[in-house]
Amino acid sequence: MSEQTEIRSTERPVPPEPAAPAKPDSAVIRDALGVGVAVGLSGFAFGVTSAGAGLSLLQTCALSLLVFTGASQFALVGALAAGGNPLTAAAGAFFLGVRNAFYGLRLSAVLGYRATVKPLAAHWVIDETTAVTLAQPDRRSARLGFTVTGLTLYALWNLTTFVGALGAGALGDTDAWGLDAASPAVFLALLAPMLRTAVERVAAGLAVVLVMVTLPLLPTGVPVLLSALAAPAVLVVQGRRERATKNRTATGEDRS
Amino acid sequence: MNVWIAIAVTAVGCYLVKYLGLSAPSGVLERPLVKRLAALLPVALLAALTAQQTFSDGGQIMLDAKAAGVAAAAVALVLRAPFLLVVGVAVVVTAGVRALGG
Known about the structure:
- The complex is a heterodimer of chains A (256) and B (102).
- Chain A is mostly helical.
- Chain A has helices at residues 25-40, 43-52, 57-66, 70-81, 86-97, 99-111, 118-121, 127-134, 139-171, 182-191, 198-214, 222-227, 230-251.
- In chain A, 68% of the residues lie in helices and 0% in strands.
- The model of chain B has no long low-confidence stretch (mean pLDDT 89).
- Classes of the chains: A mainly alpha (256), B mainly alpha (102).
């Protein structure tokens, strides 16, 4: 569940309810299974990475069962492997998970679940289920897509986590197999589709500079949290520029 | 014990934000600035995590076979390779460079 199907934009319009023709259930299920299988399998990489980071089989499986959001899980085991403080490590994982709140907000309107179902549905609110659900033409298909994607991903992600964690023991030195490169590659694959405009690229670049400069200076785990400040920093600068442009346009200084 | 604390805090925190989103009345999180920050936060974190895990080992900055693997993954991404292939390329190239003594 490594969030490959990154939601292109939170601005994506919710499909009009009755206008689009009803989609056959089989087509919805095919979409959902496709995403579920492709991404669920990368749980294997997580299992191996987590075991390589020194977490026990039980700890690794607990993460996939209870956290169930890939980027946060990779971030947590990476921070723990580096010897970070548990709360600092959890904070990094938590901040990565905050985006799921915004997915939930959009899904809430589309799925229209009752208050009693929401606590259960919430656990499956992640990148892929959101992508599949928001792509459906009506509520019935959306619920079907959400359920099938969620179920497929949850089952496969946990199964492959278990197999990966078990297999890591058999592999011995996971670094010799290059498996320590899986985690940064996952992060890069998640990041790539997000780098749409200059704002995202500048924020990413600034975050990299911040983390590399502070890495030798600050306690483990803190540099990554500090780098998150690149996001508000870039937004502040962008906001100032927009206001400046507006002022210039307003006073007519822009005609050079 | 530390690991279990980290797991528990992460599990509770990540569940609560998911539930909050699904249950919050629409409008609460819909302010433009909040949405833009929420979209940009993972960009900064993922970029920092990629750099940190590629070029460091604990608190030390270093350059090893992993950098070659992640660079190969970047090329695969530019070529629009599917997710699993991107990760596979990183692992294989890293292992290959290490086997050659890199």
